[in-house]
Predict the structure.
Amino acid sequence: MVLTLAAYFALLLAVSRRKGGRGRNDDFFRAGRESPWWMVAFGMIGASISGVSFISVPGWVASTGMSYLQMCMGFVAGYAAVAFILLPLYYRLRLTSIYAYAGTRFGPASHRTSALFFLLSKLTGAAARLYLVCLVLQQFVAAPLGCPFPLTVLAVLLLIWAYTHRSGIRTLVRTDALQTLCMLLALVGVVAVAVRQLGLSWGGLVDLVRESPYSYVFVWDAQSPQAFWRQLLSGAFIVVVMTGLDQDMMQKNLTCRTLREAQKDMCSYGLTFLPVNFLFLLLGILLHALCAARGIVPPAAGDELLPRLVASGALGAWVVVPFTIGIVAAAFSSADSALTALTTSCCVDLIGVERPGYPAARAERVRRVVHVAMVLAFFACILAFRALNDTNVINAIYVMASYTYGPLLGLYAFGLYTRRRVRDRLVPVVAVAAPVLCALLDYAAPRLWGYTFGYELLLLNGLLTAAGLWLLSLRMGQVGPESLKPVAL
């Protein structure tokens, strides 16, 4: 196992060294705007499916069946919206950081507020995902070698720094494609092992899925958080904010040569979510069938299902290899992308290394220092999660994403579809007040009206932000240059 991982990391470093370019800021931030669209699309699969997804999604079938596919259907509509509404705007303005739009449309306070909400959400969310993966690596690789957890975390972060520090996004376009390939091969491998352990033919596999109590996809009960229309609508808007308004997800797409290529990349990548997540959910059904066949009681926490079966040897001794490679590939593809995007946003949005007159040599030094600082911030966050020793912290962080991305949704929707100007200095107040009010409504709704919010909490947050901006806006006609006309739906 150690040799396999060493070979995998060596391959990543080799690709980084060979395809890393000259190590300039243009390479790190934009990859020279010459990335092949098909490579970006393929690599984005791994960047979106973290190691947590590899562990968690199979465990969801016990509580929600395959109803997650409803949300994946909404993802397809969301990716189309990003491709044909947001990407044209970003390419027209030739943005490096997508939060520069808020500055151009409203002012510097709006620009910094957008960037800070992204930095808060991405740092904690990405560190949380990497923390769970580090726990798995500690169990299967580091602990048998007597390696303490902090050293495991430091080693993982140093490896990510090693292949991203020189050329950032130019390197990631290549390494993420490689890691996506490894992740998909590992997923197919684990599914094949589970099928073999159950002694199923292809016909038997189809019958198993058809007869499984977990194979339902559609939920029509309007009160259920998994109700079809709630999941579909939420899935579409989650993609709009967590891809279209997320520097991490958009940075690679902005490295394509033309808008048309970026749109092909986005649409192709969006269509992959249904089949890939179907495989994850299929694996969950197979794992529960294996538990039933072997008399194994499934763990109460769905996240523990796959790791426990791997650790117990129920899937065979050698499945630990594709399992570990799979979560490492998915985790690294997600974490390296987040680290690069955080560095880019901090440098461009907060420090302003690309503003006119900023010395190029100094800008590159600043970028290298910020990149190291982000590695240290990841390290501190992961150790903090470890000290709390409660994986419910991770759930809280995922819920927080609805609050941190909601203000971005409201701000950008207001900017694109109104012609009003806002009092820029008051935008931070609105962006903080909306999530607070949203949290109060989320607390009161089940107690006063018997309604429990699901992912539509994101929409409510965005609506409250937009309403607050409207109340504080100025009654003025044209704002900004001609290039900032609202994009028609």
Observations:
- Residues 78 and 240 are 6 Å apart (CA to CA).
- Residues 477-489 have pLDDT under 50 and may be disordered.
- The two ends are 51 Å apart (CA to CA).
